[in-house]
Automatic annotation (TrEMBL), chains A, B:
Its EC number is 7.1.1.1. The keyword Disulfide bond does not apply. It is an enzyme of class 7 (translocase). This is NAD(P) transhydrogenase subunit alpha part 1. It comes from Mariniradius saccharolyticus AK6. The keyword Nucleotide-binding applies. PANTHER family: NAD(P) TRANSHYDROGENASE, PROTON-TRANSLOCATING NAD(P)(+) TRANSHYDROGENASE. Pfam families: AlaDh_PNT_C, AlaDh_PNT_N. Residues 4-137 form the Alanine dehydrogenase/pyridine nucleotide transhydrogenase N-terminal domain.
């Protein structure tokens, strides 16, 4: 079988499979076709792909001949149309939130897998791109904040007096939030973290941060580790508590997202206006509405000396290790569907089924089936 | 007496004295006049200066009325000319390397102090702006590198495989180099450091970094902690050793400077070309010729996927804490020349004498006297 790796769109610096992953695929008796400069922005040259056993082909050849195309960003419909019948498309297709593409894939009889659908189970953890990319994002968010802050993160006792540590507030203690906590602690900051899920408290404390408690949150264990919607009374109490902590903070990093919904508003305009001049807010939920009232996607806004950075695809800003982790997730998944160098889709496997958007004209993943029947 | 704080030039975000330092000066029975928005780029508002006891005045008023002007970047000659007779100018005037300004100050009969002339003695350590700003620079250089690197600094053992720590090479283990080592270690990198001075070895090891040894260096204890010029044979051996380490490095931070001379060339072009794609070089000596053959002052150059950042005034990129430390250095010095709210220049004090460029038409600091008689 031929596995194809295409160059991602202009604004995506990652590549789904680095040469090291290609080497593994070759050892599985597959052929790997790579579009020229597919890895360039992740610092992986064509030569390196070739040395790892890949072949350089044109985009057209790959689209027409590959049995499986592994990417990150979704392909345009016109290009999906060029794929040969029965070929499989894989990527991070946002299948639940991009109904137009999902409908097109179903109606055109394509077989497609969408990596963000990987079930959040223990066995599937090694394939979970949302987790691995959140690790990158949490780390990068802190570096970005530390770089922008006009102050030190660590405490200093110097001949020129003492410098107090920066105070960092992390909102949302999922994978990105926990990585942000760990990185801010590494850099010597005093870290506070908030999460509606009480289960997060222990993890926050174990990283050496202080947990910001707001009582009375609803919890839903079936939400796959995500937070759920809350009562108006709780939300008021939550915003007031965050306001109080925000006025003392040098940095706020917000990471709260609810899949498929607008991100919860956690930092109100009055809160930004009450913050210290020079403070920095990194809003990782900016592209889904923002956790901060004043954030704009992919822009930095300054209000009263407080800079609010609306962050988009932060994982792409550390393309080499992000691609390495993405590729490792991919390989762990591909192990389930490649046997003896051939594609074998085993729909008895809940990970294969859970990740499959559609096959032979029908939705497959229970989440896609549910969406289509809703 | 009136102490004046002027707005620094456009490209200088620091301010010599923040409101907190003004408060101390007021408690010493002085008046402090501040130009409007002097602290703006360091996030210190006019209102905050006023609340701390400062008065907002025009630039012209301050130039004409102040008994002492405390700045960072030197003033233009035309503005120095506006100062009242007997008024004292203080700043980081680069008096040893800016002979035109130094001559003007002497010939016009001005009294001027230049903060970089503060003797490198134990008693003067609390006034040493070169040390405090090097602390900022070393910290910022690592953040800049970590932000640019397409990889993580720390090691990760995740479900998506393991990530090896970044390898960082620090060239020059003075104050900036040691701070860079400490910060890179905080972020989890594996750190190697090189310095011609064997005395640096113990400090490097105590920070948990590995010391890169090149035998046969000349040392000169009278150089005030700076490195001295070396033999051709040693320099060859040094470049070869650095070349070998550089090819394995993800990040190189170069900090080697010899006061008043061109910075030593440590990273040759062949070395850059042998480095890994994605690697980052931060050259802190770029403005004095560069430690890397390919660096350009205030520019980022990319060669074979290696980015070389020629850094200028990095301390100004963290203006709040940099200004705080600058101000503390200033206060410690001003304590020596302000008594009961009045200026009293005691030329019996070796710190006052060592820091004074000129007074009543004559050079005062032994280093300026030596320069003028050479």
């Amino acid at each position: 079988m031929i596995i194809g790796i295409l160059k991602e769109p202009q604004d995506e610096a990652r590549v789904a499979l680095l040469p090291e992953a290609v080497k593994t695929l070759i050892s599985w008796k597959t052929s790997v076709w790579v579009e020229s400069s597919a890895g360039a922005s992740a610092y992986a040259s064509d030569q390196w792909y070739q040395e790892s056993g890949g072949e350089i082909h044109t985009r057209k050849e790959i689209l027409e001949k590959a049995d499986l195309i592994c990417g990150i960003q979704p392909l345009a419909e016109a290009e999906i149309g060029q794929m040969k019948p029965g070929a499989v498309l894989m990527g991070q297709l946002s299948a639940l939130f991009n109904p137009k593409l999902t409908d097109y894939l179903i109606q055109s009889g394509r077989t497609a897998f969408s990596m963000e659908l990987v079930p959040r189970t223990t066995r599937a953890q090694a394939m979970d791109v949302l987790s691995s990319m959140a690790t990158v994002t949490g780390y990068k968010a802190v570096l970005m904040a530390a770089n922008l802050l006009p102050r030190f993160f660590p405490m200093f006792m110097t001949a020129a007096g003492s410098i107090t540590p920066a105070r960092v507030l992390i909102l949302g203690a999922g994978v990105a939030g926990l990585q942000a906590i760990a990185t801010a602690k590494r850099l010597g900051a005093t870290v506070y973290a908030f999460d509606v899920r009480q289960a997060a408290k222990e993890e926050v404390l174990s990283l050496g941060a202080k947990f910001v408690d707001v009582e009375g949150a609803k919890e839903d264990k079936s939400a796959g580790g995500y937070a759920v919607e809350q009562s108006a009374e709780y939300l008021r109490k939550q915003k007031d508590t965050i306001h109080e902590h925000a006025t003392k903070a040098d940095v706020i990093i917000t990471t709260a997202q609810i899949p498929g919904r607008k991100a919860p508003l956690l930092v109100e305009e009055r809160t930004v206006r009450a913050m210290k001049a020079g403070a920095v807010i990194i809003d990782l939920a900016a592209s889904s509405g923002g956790n901060c009232a004043l954030s704009q996607p992919d822009q930095t806004v300054e209000v009263n000396g407080v800079r609010i950075v609306g962050v988009g695809n932060l994982a792409a800003e550390m393309p080499q290790d992000a691609s390495k982790m993405y590729g490792k997730n991919y390989l762990n998944f591909l192990k389930l569907i490649i046997h003896n160098g051939e594609l074998k889709l085993n729909f008895e496997d809940d990970i294969v089924t859970g990740t499959c958007v559609c096959h032979e004209g029908k939705p497959v993943s229970p989440r896609i089936v549910q969406m289509k029947s809703a």
